[in-house]
Amino acid sequence: MNASTEILVRMIDQAFDRRSWHGTNLRGSIRGMDASEAAWRPSGRGHNIWEIVVHAAYWKYVVRRRLLGEKRGSFPLRGSNWFERPVSGPGGEAEWQSDVELLVSTHRRLREAAALLTRGELSRAGDGGQVTNFALLTGIAAHDLYHAGQIQLLKRLRAGRRRVSGALEEQNAD
Fold first, then answer.
1. Is residue 63 within 8 Å of residue 110, measured between CB atoms?
2. Is the dihedral of CA 33, 34, 35, 40 positive or negative?
3. Distances (CA, A) of 105 to 26, 27, 100
4. Greatest CA span in the chain, whole angstroms?
5. What is the rounded distance in angstroms from the CA atom of residue 95 to the CA atom of residue 115?
């Protein structure tokens, strides 16, 4: 692996699951989370953490596909970008863990594809587009960190609402 590619792979790893100075990465933001926590929705239309996880997996798939010049079709879920989760009713733990594994395995495949790029390939745009492979890789790292922060905020919002709800229940019991 050339030095430029090595730095980019390290960057996407730090944004996803490696220790770094910036704090919580995407994988760390969902560590220990169960399906009910992941399925909590801040409002009627807001995305939940579970949907963010699958969204992040989808875009890792897209970047990998573009790096390798592959056609669409190998992402295991129908649709694109945002996927309703849980699909109906309360989500089960097995479905949540399956989607977390989808995120992890999609990251692993992206990482493997990125590691194969030569220095010259980093400056090329794939799929006949205008976005270089370098920009795709720095972008996916930024995407992971953006959503890691969003998840951290959703967790705090949920915890705050639970505290307020508990206080109101105590008040009403008096």
1. yes
2. negative
3. 14, 12, 9
4. 71
5. 30
pTM metric for this prediction? 0.90
Owner of token pair 């704090």:
23
pLDDT tens profile 65-120: 999 998 888 899 999 999 999 876 666 899 999 999 999 999 999 999 999 999 99
Contacts (Cβ under 8 Å, ≥6 apart) of 151: 26, 29, 30, 49, 52
Report the distance separating Cα 86 and Cα 69, nearest Å: 31
Q: Cis before residue 90, ω within 30 degrees of 0?
A: no
Report whether pLDDT(159) > 90: no
- Six-digit token string for 53: 């996880």
Domains and CATH numbers, the chain: 3-168 (1.20.120.450)
Identify which of 11-15, 77-81, 92-96, 164-168 has the greatest average pLDDT. 11-15
Q: For tokens 């926590």, what's the residue?
A: 37
